[in-house]
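Quick entry, no commentary yet.
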Amino acid sequence: MDNLYNTSSTLVLSGFNLPPESVIPAFLIATLSYMIILFCNLILILTIVLNKSLHQPMYLILLNLPINDLIGSTALFPQIIKEVLTNSRTMQYSACVVQAFFIHIYAGGTVFILTAMAYDRYIAICCPLKYNTVMTNARIMKIITTVWISCLILITVLFILLLRLPRCRSEMTHLYCDNPSLLSLVCANTTINNIYGLFIVAFTQVIANGMILYTYLQILVACFRSKRSDTKTKALQTCATHLTVFLLLECLGLFTIISYRIKNISPHLRRFMGVSTLIFPPTVNPIIYGLKTKEIKEKVVHFFRNKILPS
């Protein structure tokens, strides 16, 4: 009976199994990647916060995206860097749960934030005369609060259901911790967990993504009906930026979910897909919005010219 349940506080992750000569290059790549994510997202945050001209509904909602990206990347990279540098595959169970919690907050938060951004663009382009009365500061705060509270409630319930179950294993097949990998350590009936997990996936994929696709479809219809070429070009450019971010996240997230469901898939491919969801969007998102959003691009250039590289 002593071996029936494993209550060890230490878990063993799959690790990178790097040869000694690859440790330093891998450490430098991981650290540089994290520094780039921090730099790009902090620049986007500071640009919006410090410029009153950007304190508009679209940018206030957008502000939450780099904050969310920092949550996801910070949940992953310090642990990855430590593992590469120390060649240690062990992790405290409590730390693993915390990492998994914030990784799921990041995943859910991204979908909800993109949904809120799509709603904002829908009102701005399809109902421009009502925009200022609908998207007031009070409404924006309600939308942002709803996004974060909804995400927190969904993910908290997910982990409450997980933590009630006993563990009988301590070896994981993943590079980092998430709900599926922690659930694989459980030696009890996980039917309720699986049903609730599928509910969250269905809720985000069907309802949230359905709203995103519907709003952008309506936006495209409104753009093509518009007779003003400048309005059409600006609206299409904004939509293209949002859709690029949305499709990047969806493709990576979908492949990651599929990789968990297919048992005979290569573990290396599963690890790559899981890590890529936490690396590519946080890196690409601020770059896309910085380059494609004219107002943000101008403010970033002005900031560097006057603050960082003064003449």
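second:
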Amino acid sequence: MDWIISDELGLTVGHLVGWGAASAMIVGGVAPYIPQYRQIKKTQDAEGFSLYVCLTLLIANTLRILFWFGKRYELPLLIQSIVMNATMFAMIHLCVTVKKKNQIIRARERIFTAQPDETAHWLGQRSGIVGGEKPHRFYDLDRKYFWAWTDFQSYVDCMLVFSVLGAAITYLLIEFSPFVELIGFLAVFTEAMLGAPQIAKNYQHKSTEGMSVSMVIMWTCGDLFKTAYFVIREAPAQFWLCGSLQVLLDIIILFQVWMYRHNTAAARRLRRGD
């Protein structure tokens, strides 16, 4: 009887630990962005956060979702990718809204796709049929404005195009094992480069004002744990190598926090009007 109770208790504890670990895996990935989201909402300033961080994670997690169809992995990781994509769209929506609010002079709008009536207007104007001023919203694939659009829908449209093209290619090559493995590697490597856009943004401004230090600390802790897990579990080399690269980029960002601390403090005083 004791043996049965012990077995049942062990099974229950095992399930609880498994569910707890799965929940931590899903929630832990998005947790670092909560302080950054709150900081942007509180200060109404999105200039210190690089939207390319969102692009990096959207691409990495979309590739990971496609990889699941070719090579099944743990379901919590799949759910984590879906939740992360939703979180990144929430971050983008906030940043776009805040930047629009802060415009003193209304700037020309940049969008990923032109509306049908705007396209017709532009074509008519080129042919001399339609007069009047050019529309303020127009289609532009200039890389200078890529991922710097002024409306949220453009970011959704861009990722929708990427997802549909990726799904179509994956469907055609799903039986080709090297292609499936390549998707998995690109997903891991893209995620490993997560910190690079933020490093570039900090270097450009010579300041970390607007960036949540709590977010970066949580990145670092999560990446250290993840890399250690890969090493202990003897995961394929690309996993722990990419994890190590992530940790290195996190450390560089933390070094920037220290190196630009005086500029950051000055920028903060300027924003507060001190």
